[in-house]
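Re: the request from the purification team.
They wanted to know what the chain is likely to look like in 3D before they choose a buffer screen. I agreed to run a prediction and write the result into the notebook, where they can find it.
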Amino acid sequence: MPQLTRRHALGAAAATALTGLALGGLAQTAGATSDPGATGHEHPDVHAGHGGPQPFSETFQGRRIEGAPSHGDAHHGGYAVRIDGEELHVMRNADSTWVSVINHYETFTTPRAVARAAVIELQGARLVPLA
């Protein structure tokens, strides 16, 4: 039986990761999205002609979620999101998708979608500010 070396294990892991990325890219091309309710067309949360997300304020699953542009914070996409008044750390990716500190492995098309996903993930737990 052949001996499994670190080099073979790393090569297999890299091949698996590349396959996953390729399949994920095909799913995105086919119109799949992490944003529940997205249609594949320009999302209503995007300013017409500006390309930036619109402010929002709503109650989602009993939690107050809000988002608005925040000037001077380019690292986070220039946008602030709050859940029940507590800041949710969000970041805009190079491909214009968004992630949050609650779920940084899944991308979303808008900050509103990130806030809604965070509420679902929190399952009623309070959002604790980052230190």
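For the purification team: The longest strand covers residues 63-69.
Please add any questions underneath this entry.
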